[in-house]
Write a structure and sequence with these properties.
- The radius of gyration is 16 Å and the shape is globular.
- A 4-stranded parallel beta sheet has the order 2-3-1-4.
- The chain is α/β, with parallel strands linked by helices.
- The chain is built from 6 helices and 4 strands; from the N terminus they run βαβαααβαβα.
């Protein structure tokens, strides 16, 4: 297998503690941490992310609109972060592992394929309890809709 075997990639919904857990794991294992939230905007800008346009979309269409605008940038950021960082703990932003567009989903799935330590972080092994905890933390924005991948 490749050197990527030692990487740990943390994925999961918003406010599950991926960054906090990533920091603790990195300290315990004495390896670097890369938090996608810290590097994503630089990667987005490489492919012409427009902050002004993003603000206009959010103001006009709301969260769903900005969510759709971000998706191609998120897939690109996943590809870039995995090409640039190795032998570390990487915590994804919540949206970086969820794609409704099959093409984007397959791109991210393909780039994650060599990694054996991709870990889904949720607050509880019980789905309903996890949803309740996440809704409490995020003001009720977590849905039980299973249409996302």
């Amino acid at each position: 297998m490749s050197h990527k075997i030692s990487d740990i990639i943390l994925i999961g919904p918003i406010s599950t503690g991926k960054s906090t857990l990533g920091k603790l794991l990195a300290q315990k294992l004495a390896i670097p941490q890369c938090s996608m939230d810290d590097v994503r905007l630089d990667y987005y800008k490489e492919i012409n992310y427009d902050e002004k346009l993003a603000k206009q979309i959010r103001a006009k269409v709301g969260l769903q609109g900005i969510y759709r605008y971000w998706k191609p940038f998120e897939a690109y950021a996943v590809e870039r972060v995995l090409s640039e960082y190795s032998n570390c703990v990487i915590d994804f932003g919540a949206g970086h592992s969820v794609y409704e567009d099959d093409r984007l989903f397959k791109r991210v799935q393909q780039v994650l394929k060599p990694y054996i330590n991709v870990v889904l972080i949720i607050p509880s092994p019980d789905l309903e309890e996890s949803m309740q905890i996440l809704n409490d933390r995020n003001g009720g924005i977590i849905s039980s809709d299973n249409s996302h991948r």
